Amino acid sequence: MSFTDPDRPSRQIGRALPRSASRRLAQGRGRFASDITLPRMVHAAFVRSPHAHAELGAIALDAARAMPGIVGVFDAAAIDPWCTPWVGTLTHLAGLKSAPQYPLARGRVRFHGEPVAMVLATSRAEAEDAAEQITVDYQPLPPVVDALAALAPDAVPIHPELGDNLAFERRIEAGDIAAAMAMADEIITLDFDFARHTGVTLEPRAVVADWNEGEQRLTVHAGTQVPHMLQDIYALHFGLAAHQVRVLAPDVGGSFGIKIHIYPDEMAAIAASRALRRPVRFVADRLESFIGDIHARGHQVRAQIGVTRAGDITFFDVDDLTGIGPYSAYPRTSAVEANQVINLIGGPYAVANYRARARVVFQTKAMMSQYRAVGHPIATTVTEALVDAAARRIGVDPVTLRRRNLIADDAYPCQSASGMRFEALSHHGCLEKLHAMMGYDALRAEQAALRARGVRRGIGIASFIEITNPGAAFYGVGGAHISAQEGATIRLDAAGHVVLQAGVTEQGQGTETILAQIAAEALGLAPEQVLVRLGDTDSTPYGGGTWASRGAGVGGEAAWQAAHALRGQLLTLAASLLQADPSRLDLRNGQITDDDGTARMALADLARIAHFRPDTLPPGIVPELAATRHHVPRDYPFAFTNGVQGSLVEIDTETGFITLLRHWVVEDCGTIINPLLVDEQIRGGVVQGLGAALFEACRYDAEGQMTNATMADYLVPMAAEMPDIEIGHVCTPTAETALGAKGAGEAGTAAAAAAVLNAVNDALAPDAALLTALPLTPARVLAALGVIG
Amino acid sequence: MKSAAFDYVRAGSVAEAIARLAADPFGTKLLAGGQSLLPALNLRLSAPALLVDIARLPELAGITLTGTTLRIGAGCTHASLLTAPEIARHAPLIAEALAHVAHPAIRSRGTLGGSLANADPAAELPAVMLALDATMIIEGPSGTRHIKATDFFTGMFETALAADEILIALEIPIRTQRSGFAELARRHGDYAIIGLAATMTADATRLAFFAGGPTAQLAQRAAGALGTGPLNHERIAAACTALAQDLPAHDDPEASASMRLHLARVLLRRVITPWINPSIRTPITA
Amino acid sequence: MKPITLTINGETIRATVPPRLHLADFLRDQCGLTGTHLGCEHGVCGACTIRLDGAIVRSCLVLAVQADDTIIETIEGVTDSGEARALQAAFAARNALQCGYCTPGMVITALDFLATAPDPCDRSAIRAHLSGNYCRCTGYEAIIDAIAMVGGQ
Ligand SMILES: Cc1cc2nc3c(=O)[nH]c(=O)nc-3n(C[C@H](O)[C@H](O)[C@H](O)COP(=O)(O)OP(=O)(O)OC[C@H]3O[C@@H](n4cnc5c(N)ncnc54)[C@H](O)[C@@H]3O)c2cc1C
Ligand code: FES
Ligand code: FES
Question: What is the assigned CATH class of domain A22-30+485-631?
Fold first, then answer.
């Protein structure tokens, strides 16, 4: 089956269809976890540690108990009987250590914002009033803020029982670094500094937990990407059987990896529902989001590249250091980001010599773990800034150096120096397309002309690879109950439409719509005739949910297989009624047709007969009207995708302000199921990356307090500063699946900041100024220019 | 993020509002547009016992032109001033600055009086009032007083208003003058890293910087260095040098003191340089 | 507790509210109008944008008591009246929403832009008018496109 033939019958895959949920959401008819109200529901608020590190003394709860509207007050001692602790380690991340984490801090607090006590009240305002009445004795301990300082021999161990603060270390050595260094005519060393970010989903984290004592069941409405994973974890830690737990994901107001982790406050609120036997709602407010959500991306990297005068890159050498807060996150750990950084660096290039070290360190700041494009922005920025620095050093255009060193498009399958296996990528195809889209040569000419007039523009390019469609290699092999497979169940209803249930979830990517398109194409229906239901562990097939750009490639493939199985059943049934050869029948436009398209019977009639008049069927025919299929990628641990981004910036060298003029992306995600959705995924991802480039940073003071935990102070990208983004595609389907789809959810984020950094450094090159710290603030630009000290 | 409890009354008159304030000056807060007060309440940074809503008081409304002064009610919203023809004609600097204040849905409620009484060091309007040589009209238990803008802003979030006083209106002298405005903010509508509101009449230049210290302030030495009479590049350079003595050293995570001074000089040059050429049209009001 | 009377989406509503209750919580929790969203509760994100006496406001920065004797329109109101129909259709067609959490605030702000802008297709003017409405999902361009599409109709 080729999805590229635009004239094939029943074509749905590849159509730019709007999303089915858009109308409802645009009318304000979304139903988010934070909208859900249940009878007798109470609201949770938390007392959170104002200290980064302190010994916990007495916690006085009585004054809070006496406040109006209060239904329950908990500290660690009161909550622990309801919930067992968790440890964020996985066996395939060899040596990773962490300590047990509890819903409410026990003995010590280890980050500013750690929940210490919880109040349940009939309104959130009353819960906050009472929380203010709780007094806690803190004996401050020295904060451990800086990741490097946390490794010093005299550093205070954050978990004394773990010895030191080094949570995880991994080294890679491939090829012959010494020889590669000797071969290089130029070796360039750069020190990178990446700020911590957080996801800032517009809807904060939200759970409504409902323990039904009569049913002995826990129902949790959660703003989550991963209902089945939560079901498993809730059962484990609340002492229940999995089937006693139902997790529902309603509409989710943004996720980006923030909503796949276990959070102590959510666990406490759910435990409280059991303890109080009534529904509990916890909706993080924005302050709690900033200090309580997963942070990511805070890395310091020393990196080297070697290049010959002829323009051959001879090696990459990197040393990555990241501070993850006091615990490794559960259940995905906090080592994956650093692991991916060193897995991905240098990945687009045919360079066999590679040395890397990653160190993951405990510190007393908010926890870090997975957030959209895990590790990619860092790996891409380091790699691409090095490549540009090498190009500048040997005096060639950055595009030329990439043309020379990117893995050839006909070299696949192959493997990167770090051991990543590539099935088929298209770096050169993407680069040439981008070059044309940008009008690169004309831009360079314009740049030179404007520079003569004192206008400072820069052009930046960044090639990237993206990990999508992970198999069990990601988590399952390490012992996590995180499903790598996805299931889809499809059934015909009595009117000839279908209902499709799947384990992947929707947070706005358009999962429902692409699944409907896929099933519709297989069954010759219109997408509106496919009702898609997701996000309910009671009724959807088991699956891992939505993360790591796997919805289309893994979930979509399961849907395709299930729809195909149903198609086979329907054609067999129709053939028996029509006395035809099922292999000569087709499903088109809601009709059973001959293979030339001649209608033989309406699918609605077939459905009617199968449901209401089975007595008229030939003897021995038992209509099967449903199918379930599961899919997991097995041939490759991940389906790598690739692409390239371009950025055009203008710098005001007097003020240090950077204006993003234009941005381009060319990427290759294999079969495109819905170009409208893919393009907007990419645009949204790019803008998250542009936030990283210019604005975003979780700031901490020397005491370990986060100092910009409001939306006025943590700067996210807003409409007025963002450029229009032009997108192009190259299409190399994966041969591993029938659909050939790979992921696209993280491509935009992976390389946007790298392209901007390269553009800025290109603009500043005449001043020999070079920036290697993100975000690119005016202060940093002016300092690099030597305008300010 | 829910506010602590408080009581609320809508004042029927300025006199009533003053009486409420006088009854418990420290537990009572005036509520105008609420665009600075309500965020502070929601964040529990402030917990008054009583809010006195003055937003609908007719005594605080309206713009009136009397002879050579423009009187603007403290209750005028940012949005109303942005489109008012009297402002466009006689004090375009106000509208120019307001385009940089927050966003449409905030400007529709935020008021001139609230912005001035709040005295955020990075707010635009206090500097505009300094540049326009405005006079604040204040009412309290002991009657009405007039304070020059230069005496009104006393420190970070501090003004000459007593706890039981209300800013009623302000008066701006209508003069033949040029005016100019520039600010550097990271994003559209954000509070600025540094900003300048400037006016120049035949005999005085007023350079009001904001976000450069604890309060908006006139750069007197820089203005002195500009002098009067025809402008030239040397004088502007001298003003830039003198600016070092005007601006207090003010560091924050966005900018060090030296960066602020540098940026202030850039703004000064950018606003004033076009005025060298008398034929270049910048707003001249009368 | 204070009594208030106001018009919400054309209906007269009488209610008694604690003074500290902000209008967004009043609309969401007491009126069931959950199309108005909360993203920050300190005035920065724009998710709670509604119309009050014809002007767009942040409903997290207005007290319910302040809204006594006003006319409120929420996303539900501009949907029912048909006022937002073209915009909503353009948002859907252009895929100008993903999670949809920002969308009601965006639509209300966009209506305000279209009603007041001298040039309703001016992309940088659209961006400026929307500068206080945060969207984490879309990257904004599709939203700008959708508004410009309606502006050009
Ligand atoms: C997201 C956001 C961004 C913003 N960005 C900017 C910006 O870039 N620049 C800027 O300047 N502002 C900005 N603001 C603030 C906005 O301009 C406010 O409207 C203004 O600061 C306060 O006006 P208000 O009428 O809302 O005052 P309120 O919030 O009602 O009151 C503020 C204070 O002033 C007191 N007060 C109010 N009126 C009087 C009076 N007549 N007499 C005595 N005391 C009075 C109150 O008691 C209170 O203490 C922003 C606000 C938000 C939410
Ligand atoms: S919730 Fe009101 S502006 Fe964010
Ligand atoms: S669509 Fe998700 S925040 Fe805008």
Answer: alpha beta
CB of A252 less than 8 A from some CB of C: yes
CATH 1.10.150.120: does it fit domain C84-151? yes
CATH code for the domain defined by A295-472+635-784: 3.30.365.10
CA dihedral (A427, A717, A340, A85) positive or negative: negative
Tens digits of per-residue pLDDT, A227-254? Answer: 999 999 999 999 999 999 999 999 999 9
Beta strands in chain C (DSSP E): 2-8, 11-17, 49-52, 55-58, 71-73
User: pLDDT tens digits for A317-339?
Assistant: 999 999 999 999 999 999 999 99
CATH 3.10.580.10, domain A33-141+248-252+258-283, yes or no:
no
- Is B242:B221 a contact under the CB 8 Å cutoff? yes
- As a whole number, the mean pLDDT across chain A is 96
Q: Are B172 and B70 in contact (CB under 8 A)?
A: yes
Is residue B78 a contact partner of residue B110, using CB atoms and an 8 Å limit?
Answer: yes
**Structure tokens of C52?**
């009050």
Q: Which residues of B touch C61 (CB under 8 A)?
A: 34-35, 38-39, 106, 109
A597: nearest Cα among A6, A10, A1? A10
- Segment A665-701, tens digit of pLDDT: 999 999 999 999 999 999 999 999 999 999 999 999 9
The pLDDT tens digits of the residues spanning B226-248 come to: 987 789 999 999 999 999 999 98
Q: What spacing in Å lies between the alpha carbon of B106 and ligand 3's midpoint?
A: 21
Same fold across A22-30+485-631 and A33-141+248-252+258-283: no
CATH topology of domain C2-78: Ubiquitin-like (UB roll) (3.10.20)
Among the partner residues A125, A655, A712, nearest to B263 by beta-carbon distance: A655
Say whether C99 and A203 touch across the interface (CB within 8 A): yes
Domain range list for chain A:
22-30+485-631, 33-141+248-252+258-283, 295-472+635-784
Q: Is the CB of B35 under 6 A from ligand 1?
A: yes
* B150/B159 Cα distance (integer angstroms): 10
**Closest residue in chain B to residue A779, using alpha carbons only:** B255
pLDDT value of residue B280: 56
pLDDT at A1: 53
**Considering only alpha carbons, which residue of chain B is nearest residue A289?**
B1
Whether ipTM tops 0.95, in short, is yes
